[in-house]
């Protein structure tokens, strides 16, 4: 597979978005204890899913509960072992995000997780080279930026920043716009380590090496206690060595 095809197929996924740092549920009328799922485990998010489903039995028209259920199912799918399990949970995520939007078209969480989970299903199906899917994802994330830019620690800006970084130029890739979005993600989610990591990538590719180094050091500090960040921290350290070689 060529380098170009790899960039098209991974697009952003987003793992932006979707990173794997500490997670909370936005405070609102039907929200849950933010400690649920904080261990970042498959089991932790399964417990959260069960609690939300029980609450929906009592309040079946809550748009907040439906997008929170979609969120839990996204993170379960992202940790599932088999492709069958992943596809199942991403499909459930999409369905429940859409239910949230049926009750409230301006649900930021509904729009965000619908886009994310459609993207993950597309990634599994190998159809992320579709220009219409790229533009649809971008439009939906830009809508979330207008509705609630701080959702998921700057999630919509993180997703757009990754999109503009990962796409080739002729499909809309733009390092300047990537950096702008990722700087906003850092402002909105200063404790979310992946915001720093993705920003450092874009700064490096833009040949802003001093800034990239500073952001990488911040990433290493923020991710110090994260159990699931060992591989990314190793890449960050390798990245720093490359920058030091270039600067000296």
CATH class of the domain at 3-174: Mainly Alpha
Biggest sheet character: none
Number of discrete helical segments = 11
| Gyration radius, rounded | 18 Å
CATH topology of the domain at 3-174: Serine Threonine Protein Phosphatase 5, Tetratricopeptide repeat
Count of beta strands: 0
- Order of H and E elements: HHHHHHHHHHH
- By CATH, the architecture of the domain at 3-174 is named Alpha Horseshoe
Strand content: under 5%
CATH evolutionary superfamily of the domain at 3-174: Tetratricopeptide repeat domain
Helix fraction bin = 55-70%
Estimate the mean pLDDT confidence.
84
Note poorly predicted spans.
9-38
Structural class: mainly alpha
Give the N-to-C terminal Cα separation. Answer: 34 Å
General form: globular
Q: Main traits of this protein?
A:
248 residues, mainly alpha, Serine Threonine Protein Phosphatase 5, Tetratricopeptide repeat, 0% strand, globular
Description of the molecule:
The protein is mainly α and 248 residues long. The protein has a domain of 172 residues: Tetratricopeptide repeat domain (Serine Threonine Protein Phosphatase 5, Tetratricopeptide repeat), CATH 1.25.40.10. Helix content is 70%, strand content 0%. The protein contains eleven helices and no strands. Helix 3 packs parallel to helix 5 and helix 8 runs antiparallel to helix 9. The longest helix has 21 residues. The chain is globular, with a radius of gyration of 18 Å. About 12% of the residues have low confidence.
